[in-house]
């Protein structure tokens, strides 16, 4: 009997942690969270006085990457800072959408598949797909490239 009560307690905890929402409510909830994310980001950006001190990605490294392009001669001081912030926002949104996928599958850990699914299902992120128009006839490719699927780039 003690074993059955333990199982029911575990099931109750899991149900509370992952409330069952119907598909339309789940989509609405995700959309609300995304809107709230962008509202908070917009408010944070409007209140920032000095962007350089609040960045997570180093603008100097971004500037070095920009300089590797032969066509780039001069870089405005604001460009790496703006690009760093844009990259931060992109990574945060991708992570949030991937987290929604993990929650849909009743997990609390992100997997490569969550990120890959988000990339394939989100129009604004489809530029990350290896879109070989000749091979696919202009359609979305059926295979996600190795680097999107989390493959190694040769570094350890």
From TrEMBL:
The entry's keywords: DNA-binding, Nucleus, Transcription, Transcription regulation
An MF annotation (GO) of this entry: RNA polymerase II cis-regulatory region sequence-specific DNA binding
Tell me where it resides.
Answer: Nucleus
Q: Which SUPFAM superfamilies match?
A: Histone-fold (SSF47113)
Q: Can the keyword Ubl conjugation be found in this entry's annotation?
A: no
Which GO terms of the cellular component aspect does the record hold?
Answer: nucleus
**Residue span, Transcription factor CBF/NF-Y/archaeal histone domain:** 57-116
Question: What PANTHER family does the record tag this protein with?
Answer: HISTONE-LIKE TRANSCRIPTION FACTOR CCAAT-RELATED (PTHR10252), NUCLEAR TRANSCRIPTION FACTOR Y SUBUNIT GAMMA (PTHR10252:SF8)
> What family does this chain come from, according to its entry?
Belongs to the NFYC/HAP5 subunit family.
Subunit organization: Heterotrimeric transcription factor composed of three components, NF-YA, NF-YB and NF-YC. NF-YB and NF-YC must interact and dimerize for NF-YA association and DNA binding.
Protein name, per record: Transcription factor CBF/NF-Y/archaeal histone domain-containing protein
Q: Which organism is it from?
A: Solanum bulbocastanum (Wild potato)
